[in-house]
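Re-run requested by the PI after the first attempt was lost when the workstation crashed. Everything re-entered from the original request form. Ligand of interest: adenosine-5'-diphosphate.
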Amino acid sequence: MKSTVLRQSKSPTDSPLQYIKGIGPKRARALQEAGIRSVRDLLFYFPFDYLDRSRIVAIKDLRHYVDADKPTTVIGEVIRQEVRRSRRTNRMMFFLTVQDGTGALQCVWFEGVQWYKDAFEVGELLALSAYPDQDKFGRIQFIHPEFDRLKGAEEEDEPDWGKMFNTGSIIPKYRSTAELAHVGLDSRGFRRVLRNALRSHAHHVKETLAHDIISRNNLPALHHALQQIHFPSDHSQLALARRRMKFDELFFLQLMLALRKRQTSEDVTGIAFSKQSPSAKSLADALPFRLTAAQQRVLREIADDMRSPKPMNRLLQGDVGSGKTIVALFAMLMAVDNRYQVAFMAPTEILAEQHARTLKSFLQNLPVNVRLLIGGQRKKLREDVLEDIRSGRAHIAVGTHALLEETVEFARLGLVVIDEQHRFGVMQRAGLRQKGVRPDVLVMTATPIPRTLALTLYGDLDVSILNELPAHRKPIKTAIRMEHQKERVYQFVREEVRRGRQAYIVFPLIEESEKIDLKAATAEFERLQESVFPELRLGLLHGRMKTEEKDEIMRRFQSGDIQILVSTTVIEVGIDVPNATIMIIENAERFGLSQLHQLRGRVGRGADQSYCILIANYAWFDTQRRGKESGEVQKEKHDAKVRLETMVETTDGFTIAEVDLKLRGPGEFFGTRQSGMPQFRIANLVEDGELIAVARKEAFELVKHDPHLRQAVHEPVRTHFEEEYRHVWGLGEIG
Ligand code: ADP
Ligand code: MG
């Protein structure tokens, strides 16, 4: 959320970095490259971690930490270093010995010896972190520890970190890069310039919150929090400072959402659709099933929005299989009967194709023209579709995000339905309303979203929840099987298919080597067809196929001609073939949890018992052999195990989403950086749920009582918002 646009009002904290003692042109340039352009940016470059007394272990006690599940940190002075050649492997190794007054510790590096051998000085004070390791003589050592320089042998002007056992100092750690370290801005270098920057500039930092908000929430003043977040006097001060900084980020985000919501609710230039929708009525009469109570309630909520002249901005949340598409279809018919067009956007082309097919079959007896627009269509067809959209002959245009491209012109766009998969966050939606007069917008999420995320990403939308699955659905049975049990799994598939059911077999795609993956999937498909299921009809589906080929395969699977669909994850979202009751997921440990849930959601859509079998590689489950595996690999395996076990334990999408978010963190949860997720400096959507709620309440209250932020007490908020956030969010004038 960092601003790159020049701010209008100049304050001393906008000064160039060279105003800080210890920063010359070289360092200023390196900092600039790293995105730190002003004194203010530097002051808001927060430590990513701290070394604190409670986490530091005396060297003599290290042996008690050999089995710890977190790295252990010691602080010691360098007393000896040497390069030796291993007699066994004939490779160079670097040994560094430090001592802390309770004992000495040897650290070893096998890699990067050339660099490490010149990296340290005798007398230097280091903080070192690693999993303590016992060598064959029972001595404790650190292998490839992480280190942080605390004080150079020659320096005197810093506090005596060496005494921190007694003083309780908390030392900030800063992220650095090779370029920054090269000009002396490693973690220690940052500590020095930040000390200077705080001394000369902290008092110039303007308060950003109103007094009443600060006092109601027991927050420290901003300049105080700045001091304390860099150089805390104790743990409670640090906690308060971090809370203040997180609050700021969350508050201003919520303020933006509150202002945006206020703008749309004041806006009466949207379309007031009339209630009468003969097409919706004929569809309702022809449906082969009854809508669930939840579907009916949600439909009423949507219809109310559509009738009002305020533009609709509604989020429809519902677990896989809860029947979102049909709800959306009723909304679409209401728009069409009012002689407006609908844009229906899906996250993938395959899904757009399926939606078009589904819509056409539901609408076969109605005079509604559905057109599909996706890449890979022949030029002539594409021109034809574009012309239908332009002239208004197309009532419903189905496609991917490409529907919002400039080349697509709608005659009378009245409703936009986005069937998304977490890919269309708060940022992108801002640019959406340009297409029509002021179309109504309905966003549907493919996977339930944890509450904290929903409040952040969709906090300006009204929310409808489909919390009920259609009746007669049996819960899907889920099991984990190992590679060597695959024959039995195949046997089971064979029996089910003989009873008239269909199955999916899904392979992971790993982005780095898509070609190789495809080859593997193709080879596996051939193996399955030829040696495993020679008597059955198999089909292969992957993302690199031409549109017509994909279409053809899906059509044949839907009609039952293909009995087993071997596929990459292209079928992940939304595919709907109720007769398919078996989902086999190969290399299941490679998939994210929400992805597994989505894949599983492809079965269990009809009245028959469905199964999901997760095939895993045994090596991933063998947690006994922790051995020399890095912490990263261990975590990866642990997480994979949690994912698969969660799948077996629950089918509830909300539970699964919460676990997934905890495992992966918000960035990964949303797949890509371009997901429209705001980037936080310090706030954390997983940990700060409570604070998000508080910040949201404050922001919405403020806008309720002072919609244009005109009151004098809100001046700091208004100024800060104008300077730092407004242009980033693309919001119009506040008032
Ligand atoms: P999702 O919410 O995952 O997008 P879909 O809209 O694809 O779910 O619906 C899943 C399946 O359930 C579809 O085959 C759909 O036709 C069917 N369905 C929807 N509503 C009902 C209902 N009320 N009763 C029975 N089946 C329904
Ligand atoms: Mg769907």
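Saved to the shared folder this time. The domain at 477-650 is CATH 3.40.50.300 (Rossmann fold).
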